[in-house]
Structures are given as structure tokens and as C-alpha cells.
Amino acid sequence: MYVNAAQSLGLPFTADFNIGAPTGTGYLQFTARGGRRCSAVDAFLHRARSNSRLRVITGAQVNRIVLEQQRAVAVEYLHKGQMHTLRCDAEVLLAAGAFGSPKLLMLSGIGPAEHLRRWRIPVQADLGGVGRNLQDHCGSPLVLRGNSRGHGYFRQDRGWRLAWNLLEYGMFRRGRLTTVGGEATSFHVVGASSGAATVQIYCVPTLGYANTGADAVPSVDGIKLHVTLLRPHSRGSVTLRSADPADPPLVDPNYLGDASDLQHLLGGMRVAREIAGSAPLRQALSGELLPGAGARTDAELAAYIRRTLRTDWHPVGTCRMGRSSEPMSVVDPCLRVLGVRGLRVIDASVMPNIVSANTNAPTMALADRAMSLLLSGADAPAHGRRPSVPQTAGSSAEGSTLVTRLP
Fold this sequence. Notes:
Structural class: alpha+beta
Number of strands: 18
Radius of gyration: 24 Å
Largest sheet: 7 strands, antiparallel
Helix content: 10-25%
Shape: globular
Number of helices: 8
């Protein structure tokens, strides 16, 4: 119904959103197999569990990466109350995410020198971009009441409906139990002349999460049209709360810090209303719950968006890849940390700009590319600027080639 309603407004049907710049409307693809979500652990790690060269330590807290002569040589971590230092004669690969990776770099003395000195952390490499450039997809929902004919997921987890859903899943590995929360979407050019989509709308056939106060959602049949900002202009930051590794970092997403972001979401909310009012979707709905028919002006809609804005859990960019001559670069095109040998970052934090898509699959593709670089021995010295570092006897600010040695 959603896809057909979006098409009725002139949006083309797109069978595969992964062929290039996302446009049109259609059905989402998932990392799934046999009706179950398939994580990187399922797809890759489980296959290597019997390999004697693999050791996985869980329940551990990494405190810092140990550097000697501007080279990563060990990882220090706390496990079951005891401190351990794991030495490395090849490379340390950091994959702690857009919040964890910059935190660990800063705890290791790699980051903005002024910020590190505030916490009395010895500066190993002055990289001003560590923890900067935080980007995330955020959005706000248009919430609509259903006509109680059971089109969505409301009360599908009880009674005969649950029995049928269990039977369908058990026999065919399909049906409502295979859902990830929403299967249909559309991309829209709002407030931009470049032709690239700036807003994505997800059709979520349940009211699921509920806001509080004036924006509370009743437990009824309905859908959310979640309006998501694809290319935010706002930039946030990740900084240290203290020099204690047990303290989580301070995360400032700075949502709507750029005025254009709010304008794009306003335009997306109006597009969502158009889709909701188009056949055949309108036949399955009985009214708008939030922001409500009374919210018509930009000021009223903007106030609602500010109240209900939420993350899509896609943080990226805090260890951005770039040319060594650019002041905010943290890693080079081979994902090596500038000014440090034997250390790479291989997660979504290296993305210079957020992708117009969920970040799970792109991050796995990025990690796969990192492994290709390692296996090919692509480790030529980075060009141009090296960050300033304190000079000690026998140390040098210049990088040197390190050839990866594999077992």
C-alpha cells in the first residue's frame, strides 16, 4: 500500500536501491538468511571459530593502545579485574565504532593536543580531527491511526494471530515474524536542486515506540512514516569525559545545528502527509495522531520535530579518512592512522561523509576492503603532512613503511 501510494505521486518504483544513488520507492533489502537476521558474527566469525589462530576475549575493557617510537606495539585491557597487555609485532586494527574508536585513540594520546592535555594524557600524535565530524541519520515520525483491519503488526503477537504467524514462520520461514520493523521506503529530493535525495521515509507498520507527554501514542493499530534526514549538514563531536577508560565519552550529536537540516525534515514531513493521503494507503488509515491535523504551519511542525527527533543509530565520521594535508583527516586512504605506524581504523568512523543508507552493510564492505589492503600488503607511506609529536631520544615524527606479516 505504501509503495503504491508513493508511486501514485509520480515516484518511480526501484527494484534495487544498491545500484547507485537511491531514488524512488520500493522494498528494503536486509542482511538476512532463512528468515533470520544475519550479523557479521553469524556470517564470518562463527565460520572461523575452530581456527587455532583466532582468539576472542569477551567481557574485556580496552584501556588504550600502547605506542613506542610512534608505533602501535600493544593493546592494554582489563579482564576479570586484572590488567593485561597484548603485544603485537604486525598491526593493531581498531574497530570500536564511531564513539569507541575516537575515545580509544584519545586515551592512547592520539587526538587534539589541547583536549588531551586537559586530561594530562601525553600527546603522541596531534590529530585535531579525532572525535570531530560526527554525523548521524536522525528523523521524526508522522504517526497515523489504522482502520483496525489488521494490515500492520498490531496484536499479531497474541491469540490465533500469533499461532498462525508461528506456523507460517516454522513452515516457510516467512511472514510477520521475519520483519525487522519496516520493509517499504521512499527517497525524496527536498529543498535541494542537485537532484540527490535528501530525505528518506520508512513505512513502519506498528506504533511500537511511544513518546511521552503531549506526544504520547496510544496502543492502537497504526503506522509510522519515519522521516529521516539523509545528508545532514550538522556536525557533532565525541570527547573524553575524563582520562578514566571506564567513563563513557561525551557525545554531542548537534542535531539540527545547521538550519537546512530542519528545513529538509519539514519538507519530508509534508511529503509523508501527501503519501498518507494517497490511495491505496489512505483506505487503511483513519486519522493522524502526531503531529495532528492542527499542526499546519512550519513553526508548529518544527516544534514537533524538535520534540520528537530521534537517532537512526547510524553514527559515522569521527576518525575521518582524507588527505594528510587536510587538518581534520585522521586516517589515510589505506585506513592507517596518520603519524602512527602499525595502527588502522576499520569501522564507520572513517567515513568522511555519511552514506544515504543504513550503515550496517557499508561498514562490513569497508571492513572487507580493509582486509584486502592488508592481504595485498598495501602499506606505502602516507603522503604530505604528519602531525606534530613530542620528540624523544630515538623517536621520529616521520612515518616508515611497515609490511604486514601474516601467520
